[in-house]
Design brief:
By secondary structure, the protein is of the alpha/beta class. It has eight helices and ten strands.
């Protein structure tokens, strides 16, 4: 069983909103220009039009495993990243130095990429993209723990997707615990560089992001996908795809729940 891309998303620029510019968000952002270039070379009409959204500013700890320098401490993560990308690639992408909230407009968003660091924040996204006024075609959610994580590409239940007989279930539908705010930890950032490294092994974020980007690339290159996410275990060197098959997906969800329950904190 496979999922096919809507032809509409091949006829015009695809509006992407990246929510969160931390470990996963910055890694995803770094790869999006390559996806944009590949789409344009294969004849896509407009490629990607990307907006980065994050209300946080760069801290000293962020400079350990996120692509920020000491000279950028105190500046907006979203503004720094988008300015760097626009300068290097000659693009005109956008930055919104604010946190995503229930008041955030998603009217012109085709793909929302969620890279948030708490279940409470993920719940806000889940409710917003599935709202009656939402026209978001896809919600790509990423979450990780110390040695791996998961990504899920889904089609929120809204006016845009409600007529689809083969709608891809979202991360919150498949794994409700990912939006259960009571399971969040204290939500506080690491207080030192050493603690930051102890909480998470290096290269978890770019590994997870590259797998998610490869899924999007396949969707736009071939127009169809046979899986819509995966569980990535860097420590064991394993990737378990979330295939688009009702029976197999149920089995994988049962096996993946333990990972998902601890994989949404960063």
């Amino acid at each position: 069983m496979s999922h096919s891309l809507s032809p509409e998303l091949l006829r015009r620029p695809v509006h992407v909103l990246v929510v969160g510019c931390g470990g996963n968000g910055s890694a995803i952002t770094a790869g999006l220009p390559y996806l944009h270039q590949a789409m344009m070379l294969h004849g896509h009409r407009g490629g990607l039009d990307v907006t980065l959204m994050d209300g946080d500013v760069i801290s000293a700890t962020n400079c350990i495993r996120q692509p920020f320098s000491q000279a950028e401490i105190g500046h907006s993560k979203a503004v720094v990243l988008v300015s760097r990308i626009n300068l290097f690639w000659g693009l005109k992408w956008h930055a919104v130095p604010e946190h995503f909230s229930s008041r955030t407009s998603v009217d012109r968003v085709d793909i929302l990429i969620g890279c948030v660091d708490s279940r409470a924040a993920r719940r806000v996204i889940a409710e917003k993209v599935a709202g009656r006024r939402s026209g978001v075609s896809y919600w790509l959610d990423l979450g990780n723990h110390s040695t791996g994580g998961q990504f899920v590409l889904g089609q929120p239940w809204n006016w845009q997707n409600k007529r689809s007989a083969t709608r891809l279930r979202t991360a919150s539908e498949l794994f409700p615990e990912l939006i259960e705010a009571s399971l969040d930890n204290d939500g506080q950032p690491s207080c030192s560089a050493v603690e930051a490294l102890e909480r998470q092994e290096p290269f978890v974020n770019p590994t997870l992001a590259n797998h998610a980007l490869a899924l999007l690339a396949r969707l736009f290159r071939h127009g169809a996908i046979t899986y819509h996410g995966a569980f990535v275990n860097v420590a064991a060197g394993r990737v378990q795809p979330l295939v688009i098959d009702p029976q197999i997906s149920r089995a994988l969800r049962r096996r993946g729940r333990r990972l998902a329950s601890v994989g949404a904190v960063r």
